[in-house]
Amino acid sequence: MGKLDSKVPSGPLADKWTKHKNEIDLVNPANKRNIDIIVVGTGLAGGSAAATLAELGYNVKTFCYQDSPRRAHSIAAQGGVNAAKNYQGDGDSVYRLFYDTIKGGDYRSREANVHRLAEVSTNIIDQCVAQGVPFAREYGGLLDNRSFGGVLVSRTFYAKGQTGQQLLLGAYSAMNRQIQRGKIKSYTRHEMLDLVLVDGKARGIIARDLVSGEIERHSAHAVVLATGGYGNLFFLSTYCMGANVMAAWRAHRKGAYFANPCFTQIHPTCIPVSGDHQSKLTLMSESLRNDGRIWVPAKIEDAEAIRAGKLKPTEIAEEDRDYYLERRYPAFGNLVPRDVASRAAKERCDAGYGVNKTGEAVYLDFDAAIMRYGREKALTSGMKNPDDATVRKLGEEIVEAKYGNLFQMYEKIVDENPYKTPMKIYPAVHYTMGGLWVDYNLQTTIPGCYAAGEANFSDHGANRLGASALMQGLADGYFVLPYTIGDYLSDDIRTGPISTETTEFDEAEKAVRERIEKLMSGSGIHSVDYYHKKLGKIMWNKCGMSRNEKELKEAMKEIAELRKDFWENVKIPGTAYSKNQELEKAGRVADFLELGELFAMDALERNESCGGHFREEYQTEEGEALRDDENFKFVSAWEYTGEPSKSKLHKEDLKYENIKVKTRSYK
Amino acid sequence: MKLYLKIWRQKNADSKGSMVDYTLDGVESDMSFLEMLDILNEELISKGEEPVEFDHDCREGICGTCSLMINGQPHGPDSRITVCQLHMRSFNDGDEIVIEPWRATAFPIIKDLIVDRSAFDRIQQAGGYISVNTSGRPVDANAIPIEKEMADKSFNAATCIGCGACVAACKNASAMLFTSAKVSQFALLPQGQVEAAERVQNMVRQMDLEGFGNCTNTGACEVECPKGISLENIARMNREYLSASVKG
Ligand SMILES: Cc1cc2nc3c(=O)[nH]c(=O)nc-3n(C[C@H](O)[C@H](O)[C@H](O)COP(=O)(O)OP(=O)(O)OC[C@H]3O[C@@H](n4cnc5c(N)ncnc54)[C@H](O)[C@@H]3O)c2cc1C
Ligand code: SF4
Ligand code: FES
User: Fold this and answer.
1) Which domain holds residue B79?
2) Which domain CATH number covers B47?
3) Which part of the chain is the 4Fe-4S ferredoxin-type domain (chain B) (predicted)?
4) Which of A56, A177, A571 sits opposite B131 (nearest CB)?
5) Last residue of a domain, one of A407, A428, A449
């Protein structure tokens, strides 16, 4: 098995985690005080891990590039977090959540990890409520739930459209408690630029203080990377502007295998691109698909008239609308998983039915929901024969209570009122299922280097279900990593503090300084954004929602050329040893320019379609993804060998012992 | 449209800053305000000048990073939004726009339009949490029903994004709205009761230590708060503080 030993415990699936926890070597509390852990990233995964590790007694240092841990991009998550609580009594269970996640991931994730995730999901809600996270409640005072795509039960807990914010502030408050106790030292406006290995083990990082520009050394007995996803590779995405792959990529270059880089989620409901000036895309939460119906005109001439501004959507009669998801997937309708919904939108727009100027938008319509809620409300308030206007008003109030902040966001960006006219939406890059390869303990192929949250590849296979990223981040951070890491650290109780005055740290720091100097000495023709935008275009056009061999090969070549150009000609004003946002961006884009090539190569090697990875050559007659379980039922884990295009592929074979592998169908 | 920008430039915390004039052409109405600044920065970089540094990250109104004073108003002219959500359709061709950082003793300037808001973190560290162990086994989440109205109010207080516009808007640079939002979130929930007295005292003490000014009830903070955090929270915190002091 070599380095790719998944370390999945033996025994029946449902007992593995309990058994493993009982067998893990523990570090006694007195010894924990002598052990230092670095946690890079303070989102849901890093924040919760840091708080729990500190509480267990370890000395923790946290790092984030924002000015406060509270601003990690987890803050932007809108719709909700899953848990198999079965409060609604609709037949949910740990097994069903496990099953839905494996199926949703198109049978490309590890059974044991996913089962553990489903098991601990219920603890997350208990934990967060105890911390004072104000989840939405019903009138009876109990917690409320909603539904997300790809499932037939209602298991998503939420706090209006700000679930991520509330969960992150919960983790931040747990961190604050430990900061106050002196158990966490928080470094903000700090960026990790490299991982330091001593005797093959992760023993520290090199970081840059983004205010002074100083390069710093930090040592620890283990390093946890919880640095989020790499979707900004595409330039335009729903990520925050600073999201990057640097920490994971630097670890990759030092020996951590990178798994399934091409598994990217393109989210079906985002606000469409409006022009070249655009710097980011905004998500409209999947929860909107509970109540919104997706459609395009059924007649091509209507679509043309709309694009020409001669027709309004509200003027199109019901029978002239094509609710294509309801038509193609009657069982799941508007709540099919994201990959399916995104491809269906692209299919309609490519066929000429798009509804905005660029032809790349479809409608998400709340009219039916507004009227339905309005009628319900009128009935329960005892109104007899209310007129349409009253019903509409009541309905709008209910929709506002559910999604008010999302509707406001939409209106501010698009300048149209979504209560009165359908929203226009289009798919956008949103999440990366791929990431650092980790074993069952969340350890990468570098001993002592762990990865948690979106930064690892572990639980979502080729497609993530909605509301499952928050679940995974918190599961990793609160309930998994703080225990599994003990198994490794139990060998370190006599090691003593790790010195930063060693040749390993000297060399790592020297390499970092040289890289910065090289960036600063570019000939100065183009800005960093110029390269980032170019890279994004290549990725979106050739490695996006649908891919083919020819274009993937072109992408690899073009990215390699762009990278060369970047290193020769990038222009970074200012100096290296002071605050310099252009330099920060440059370091991030430099790594994206390497990852992009590996991404394309991974997509090229995977001669099948599965989840978010759609290869045009591999599809059914009806245009559905065609998986090849015989040849591709594995995780691709790439080893860095000096050049992205020369990376070596290792395969972790996936075994399904508890689930029958089937063709995924939502019809 | 063509705009005349006056922007605060300051090299670092120690240097003296000043307003600098820029003219920017070709701005479109569906650009966001920050995208307009991106374009200005591209122009500056191509001329070999240092771009204007400003804080931003999510660009969708939730992380609380962006923080600009535009024509004297925190987050600009539109109400209930952050500056990253502001769009150029709120301006006209030929407008002069003055862009400055938050001004407050407790928020020292780091560079150009970027300030140091770590004082806010320290206020939260002083007591903005419920002391439950994350590694423990708490009771089932539905064991304690919470009245929807209370839960919703607590949620509303919890939506503060920690941007600091309230401080920037206040002539005394008071942080009462920010601090009271957290105190209220917990004061409204049964889970928050146990430590309520200690929490409010510790957080208020830290707030004073950081050098934020006193609250004189002008209400400017509520008007400028992008999340609509209500003055009720300040009243609630004052009550909590009073009853905590009485208890000793
Ligand atoms: C708009 C949006 C809405 C979403 N809605 C949902 C939802 O409703 N439900 C759901 O389950 N999921 C949702 N997701 C996905 C989910 O929010 C993310 O996958 C998840 O929050 C990631 O958490 P994380 O802790 O892994 O990383 P993040 O929260 O992204 O945190 C990354 C951290 O790493 C730090 N960092 C990164 N690089 C470095 C470096 N080099 N040096 C130092 N620090 C570094 C950052 O400062 C930050 O603290 C949404 C995502 C987006 C973008
Ligand atoms: S109270 Fe309002 S203005 Fe003040 S920090 Fe919170 S969100 Fe910003
Ligand atoms: S950049 Fe996040 S709120 Fe403006």
Assistant:
1) 3-110
2) 3.10.20.30
3) 151-181
4) A177
5) A428
The residue contributing the CA closest to ligand 2 atom 2 is B225
3-state DSSP call for residue A303?
helix
A664 in active site: no
Do residue A412 and residue B81 have CB atoms under 8 angstroms apart?
yes
Q: Which numbered atom of ligand 2 lies nearest the CA of B175?
A: 4
- How do the pLDDT tens digits run along chain B, 248 residues long? 999 999 999 999 999 999 999 999 999 999 999 999 999 999 999 999 999 999 999 999 999 999 999 999 999 999 999 999 999 999 999 999 999 999 999 999 999 999 999 999 999 999 999 999 887 777 899 999 999 999 999 999 999 999 999 999 999 999 999 999 999 999 999 999 999 999 999 999 999 999 999 999 999 999 999 999 999 999 999 999 999 998 76
CB-based contact, A468 to chain B, within 8 Å: no
With H, G, I as helix, E, B as strand and everything else as coil, classify residue A328: helix
C-alpha span between A42 and A186 (Å, rounded): 9
Give the mutation target among A454, A465, A516 for probing the ligand 1 site: most ligand atoms within 8 A of CB.
A454
In a domain, A10, yes or no: no
- State whether residue B205 sits within 8 Å of chain A by CB: no
Q: Which one is catalytic: A110, A155, A208, A338?
A: A338
Which residues on A lie below 8 Å from B44 (Cβ)? 573
Residue A570 DSSP symbol: B
Q: If you average pLDDT over residues A74-85, what whole number do you get?
A: 96
Instruction: Please tell me chain B's helix, strand, coil percentages from 3-state DSSP, rounded to the nearest 5.
Output: 40, 10, 50
Residue A275 shares a structural domain with residue A172: no
- Total domains in chain A come to 3
Is B63's CB within 8 Å of A66's CB? yes
The pTM of this model reads 0.97
* CA-nearest residue, atom 27 of ligand 1: A228
For chain A, give percent helix, strand, coil, nearest 5. 45, 15, 40
Residue at which a domain ends, from B83, B110, B137:
B110
Q: What are phi and psi of A637, to 5 degrees?
A: -120, 115
Whether the Cβ atoms of residue A398 and residue A329 lie closer than 8 Å to each other: no
| Same domain as A459, residue A375 | no
Task: Give the integer Cα–Cα distance in Å for B177 and B189.
Answer: 19
All residues at 6 or more sequence positions from A103 whose CB lies less than 8 Å from its CB, including other chains: A150, A659, A662, A664
The Cα–Cα gap between B160 and B82 comes to 12
**Atom of ligand 2 minimally distant from the CA of B165:** 3
- B188-207 exposure pattern, b = at least 16 Cβ within 10 A, e = fewer: bbebbeeebbebbbbbbebb
Please report the ipTM that was assigned to this predicted complex. Answer: 0.98
Give the number of beta-carbon pairs within 8 Å between A and B.
216
CA of A376 to the centre of ligand 1 (A): 38
Residues having CB closer than 6 A to ligand 1 are A 40-46, 63-66, 72-74, 76-81, 163-164, 191-192, 226-229, 238-239, 244, 246-247, 283, 285, 430-431, 453-455, 467-470, 473
**How far, in Å, from the CA of A478 to the mean position of ligand 1?**
16
Asked which of B75, B110, B145 is the last residue of a domain, the reply is B110
Encoding tokens for residue A553? 């090969």
The verdict on B199 and B99 lying in the same domain is no
Q: Do B146 and A137 touch (CB under 8 A)?
A: yes
Which run of H or E residues covers position A73?
Answer: none
Domain of A605, in residue numbers? 501-631
Find out whether A619 and A546 touch, Cβ atoms under 8 Å.
no
How many separate domains does chain B show? 2
End-to-end CA gap in chain A: 39
CATH of the domain at B239: 1.10.1060.10
Mutation pick from B63, B156, B199, B205 vs chain A, by most beta carbons of A within 10 Å, is B63
